[in-house]
């Protein structure tokens, strides 16, 4: 609770003793007569009485001044009333200003509600400090509420993940049971077929053994046409044995496939210096492309292989067989393209024929203004990317006519496309912000390893 300020009405005092029970520390009253401005004014804090004759009585100290000086409110000499040249040791609540005792008695604030300065200061301090406590309580309550909200959200996410995990485990268990039952069914099927084949063979052996030669010569055609055992045929999948069709297009498997390709021996892949646009700068080692500001651009010698309007460049190695994979460090670039194109792609002009992803001869993954998309023949397919990759891997598998974009760190597939490529492919790049760098050189893994992965993913 805030301390209520003491309110006093000042009048000229007399030599008469105060009435019994009257508080001389805060209130001084005088009979209705001419007031002598030099009458003593009683201190409101300590009750000490001091007389004023233009200066304080020797030995008498204003408790208000002492208290305020000790508390740091005043520094140096106290301010004086301009009208009465007396110390401003009272506060007028009516006019909200500091006054002297003469102002309260005979001055402009006569009859107003006045309070000793020390009491007013104490009340303000108490009020301010009391107001801080509710604010602290509100802040703590808000922080506690926010913490509980975050914990509730985390708990909800945890519960959702646990439910999803349980659901997936149940699906896996169901699939395991189904496949196991399918295998048992197939085993019984082939067991019966084997028994029938054995019986047919026994009959054939008996016929060949016990039939006279003359009859064998006549019945040759009948013997060769052996009755096929019921249910026996070439081994193949059945409806009961087929697995989930989605397994043939598993992004996880394709990502592992792409990562495995990188484990093969190195083959040199660099940017082809002849194709680099004048809008780009190529490092001396031919592994980094950097977008140039206008003032830093120079006109390179004319070359029919060079892109002259779009910030494009091509790789140095042609691909028309086998399986190949490489990784591009895209860093913080906000605008780039990575992919493949035919060697016959247009190099000159600002039309779509020379713009990667906007013609039928190029396939690229594009990043611009925070969005990722796959571009081919002028059509953009938006891609959902959980986090912005710092590097992008590409895989070209010529036998299966597959182009794959993936994130090497997590083996997450960003996009894959199957297309009947009709001509050799070249790595294709475009940069319109900062730099990109070839990290992993083109790699060719062992043929047997790729054949196994290709079989699993097809």
Automatic annotation (TrEMBL):
Residues 147-178 form a coiled coil. It comes from the Eukaryota. The keyword Ubl conjugation does not apply. Residues 249-447 form the B30.2/SPRY domain. Residues 1-14 have a biased composition (Polar residues). Residues 1-30 are annotated as: Disordered. Pfam families: PRY, SPRY, zf-B_box. The keyword Coiled coil applies. Keywords: Coiled coil, Metal-binding, Zinc, Zinc-finger. GO terms for molecular function: zinc ion binding. Residues 76-117 form the B box-type domain. This is B-box and SPRY domain containing. It comes from Myripristis murdjan (pinecone soldierfish). The gene is bspry.
């Amino acid at each position: 609770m805030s301390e209520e300020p003491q309110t006093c009405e000042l009048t000229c005092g007399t030599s008469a003793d105060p009435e019994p029970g009257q508080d001389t520390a805060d209130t001084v009253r005088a009979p209705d007569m001419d007031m002598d401005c030099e009458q003593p004014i009683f201190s409101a804090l300590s009750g000490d009485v001091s007389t004023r004759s233009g200066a304080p009585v020797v030995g008498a100290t204003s408790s208000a001044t002492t208290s305020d000086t000790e508390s740091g409110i005043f520094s140096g000499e106290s301010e004086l009333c301009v009208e009465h040249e007396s110390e401003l040791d009272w506060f007028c609540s009516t006019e909200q200003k500091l006054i002297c005792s003469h102002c309260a008695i005979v001055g402009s604030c006569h009859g107003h509600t006045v309070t000793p300065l020390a009491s007013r200061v104490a009340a303000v301090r108490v009020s301010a400090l009391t107001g801080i406590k509710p604010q602290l309580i509100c802040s703590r309550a808000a922080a506690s509420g926010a913490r509980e909200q975050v914990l509730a959200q985390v708990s909800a996410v945890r519960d959702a993940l646990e439910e999803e995990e349980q659901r997936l485990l149940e699906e896996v268990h169901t699939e395991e049971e189904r496949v196991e039952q399918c295998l048992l069914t197939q085993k019984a099927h082939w067991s019966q077929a084997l028994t029938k084949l054995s019986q047919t063979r026994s009959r054939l052996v008996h016929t060949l053994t016990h039939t006279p030669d003359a009859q064998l010569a006549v019945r040759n055609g009948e013997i060769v046409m052996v009755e096929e055992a019921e249910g026996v045929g070439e081994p193949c999948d059945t409806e009961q044995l087929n697995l989930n069709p989605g397994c043939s297009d598993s992004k996880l498997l394709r990502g592992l496939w792409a990562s495995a390709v990188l484990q093969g021996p190195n083959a040199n892949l660099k940017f082809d210096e002849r194709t680099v646009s004048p809008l780009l700068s190529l490092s001396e080692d031919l592994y980094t492309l950097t977008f140039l500001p206008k003032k830093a651009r120079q006109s390179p010698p004319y070359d029919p292989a060079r892109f002259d309007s779009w910030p494009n460049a091509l790789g140095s190695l042609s691909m028309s067989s086998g399986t190949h994979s490489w990784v591009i460090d895209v860093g913080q670039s906000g605008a780039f393209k990575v992919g493949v194109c035919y060697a016959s792609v247009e190099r000159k002009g600002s039309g779509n024929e020379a713009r990667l992803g906007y013609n039928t001869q190029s396939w690229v993954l594009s990043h611009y203004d925070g969005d990722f998309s796959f571009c081919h023949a002028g059509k953009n397919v938006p891609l959902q990317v959980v986090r912005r990759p710092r590097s992008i891997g590409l895989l070209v598998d010529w036998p299966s006519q597959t182009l794959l974009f993936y994130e090497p760190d997590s083996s997450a597939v960003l996009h894959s496309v199957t297309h009947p490529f009709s001509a050799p492919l070249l790595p294709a790049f475009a940069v319109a912000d900062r730099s990109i760098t070839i990290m992993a050189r083109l790699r060719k893994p062992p043929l047997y390893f790729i054949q196994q992965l290709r079989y699993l993913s097809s």
